[in-house]
């Protein structure tokens, strides 16, 4: 049986704080949308809020992608590990 290798990214306290803060904000936005549904708010208003959530998530994903490219990917390429390129191609496919 193959043992899976768990990959990790060590982040600075500042990076963690930034990411968690943004995730907490997104979580609050989602709770707000749920409240709007419970309050029978107009569909258009809910859709506008969902669009804002979507933009927040995409912005966070872009931040993580940038950090990933500048740290993990760069490090693995410098170590001669070209397999990271396939990982990046697959990752970009998910963003489409």
Tell me the strand percentage band. under 5%
Q: How much helicity do the residues have?
A: over 70%
Label the overall shape: elongated
| Classification by helices and strands | mainly alpha
Main features:
single chain, 96 residues, mainly alpha, elongated
Task: Give structural notes.
The chain is an all-alpha fold and 96 residues long. It is built from 3 helices and no strands. The longest helix has 36 residues, at 43-78.
Nutshell version of this structure?
The chain has helices at 13-38, 43-78, 83-95. It contains three helices and no strands.
What is this structure's SSE topology?
Elements: H1 13-38, H2 43-78, H3 83-95
